[in-house]
Write a structure and sequence with these properties.
It is elongated, with a radius of gyration of 27 Å. A hairpin with a 2-residue loop joins strand 1 and strand 2 (308-311). The chain has helices at 4-13, 19-30, 35-47, 55-67, 71-81, 91-103, 109-119, 127-139, 143-155, 163-175, 179-191, 200-209, 213-225, 233-245, 249-261, 269-281, 285-296; strands at 302-305, 308-311. Helix content is 66%, strand content 3%. 47% of the residues are buried. Among the domains are: 1-106, Alpha Horseshoe (Serine Threonine Protein Phosphatase 5, Tetratricopeptide repeat), CATH 1.25.40.10; 216-316, Tetratricopeptide repeat domain (Serine Threonine Protein Phosphatase 5, Tetratricopeptide repeat), CATH 1.25.40.10. By secondary structure, the chain is mainly α. A two-stranded antiparallel sheet has the order 1-2.
Amino acid sequence: MTDPAELCSEAAECFGSDPERSFALFREAAEAGYPNAFFGMAEVLMSGSLKDPDPEWAEELYRVAAKAGHPPSMYRLGMLFSGAMGHPEDPAECRRWFEAAAEAGMAEAYPELAEIYLCGYGGAADERRSFEMLRKGQEAGDAMSAFKLGCMYSDGIGIDRDEKEAVRMFRIAAYKGVPEAQFKMGVVAQEDPSESDLPAREWYRRAAEAGLPAAMVNLATMLYEGKGAERDLGKAFALYSEAAELGDGDAMFMAGRMAFEGIGTERDPAKGMELFVRAAAAGNRMAEELVSEIRRKQNTQIIRIDGADYDIRRDA
């Protein structure tokens, strides 16, 4: 009989190019009772490469492997019962299988369990256990676990508040490319440059390039004000506009103001007014007040921005 481990290895190699052969090889290995083969069959079924994904059959196969002590199958069962893979949701079963995977040393289960314990999904909430799972995830090299651990240290959730440790965790996650952590380090660098080996503008630039609107807004503000970065109104307007398109209300207001007054871009009152209205709808307080004032005085067509009167009827 062919070694089932060799069959699984061959099946894995042709998983993407020939899923039918891959499934047949995994099935042959499964006939020998090899746990990884049941997992492989389930993975092929869930990939949808043979037909539509079959979560019910996959669950049966994952269970066989999980009961034989296969951690990845335990993890997959946790995912299935979360309802995220087309399978009926069962919070208690989700929690149970993620716990089994974590106890078996499956590092990917640590951050999942951290969220489960924090939210009380499938059982009682437990902030301390959530913290411990994130600590294990961070020690296993998970960047997002490091970021979330920093948030827990910063807010005193599951552990005593410790800003030094929070910054250390944010720094670890930031260097691993987590945009939210890069943003946090930008804030840290602005408040206390000695706590960061990179300037705030560099952290914000990295997070902004990763698509984080808050970082775009903070970097744009530095460029607009010329604080911590050389003043560049054109770049500031571009960043505010990009963040505005992503739904950031503060960015909408600033892009609107710059367009309305012709700062860093051609003057366009109509575009400015459009952005003010969108910013107000997004909850920006200054835009809400401005739009309310405009509505109260719409018969005069005169509005006041930063102490100056503007006639919104005139051409840009």
